[in-house]
Amino acid sequence: MITVSIMRQSAADSRIVSFAIEGHAKFANPGKDIVCAGVSAVSVGTVNAIEALAGVALPASMKSGWLRSEIPAGELDADSDAKTQLLLESMIVMLESIAASYGKFVVIRHLFRE
Fold first, then answer.
1. Quick check: is 110 catalytic?
2. Total structural domains in the chain?
3. What start-end ranges are recorded for coiled-coil regions in this protein (predicted)?
């Protein structure tokens, strides 16, 4: 199963401060697993889009079945921060779409730092 953990600042301040994606869907054999491929494409594509469109290079750690990133706190100007948050929220919508169709293989957890 793939577990997506979205960490937000707090219930009052819903800014995304980090995310982690770990595990394998095991929907199909490696190389043919459309669930893993979809989650990977959405998450890695989002990290790349944030760099290309918001000019923010997220510190991301990635290996097989694992991607984690923290959003630089207090280091972004208002425009870059807004773009980054919008792209991250878009990532969540896409991952929730995958989970809606393949919920047995993907779970999304929303957590709060405070």
1. no
2. 1
3. none
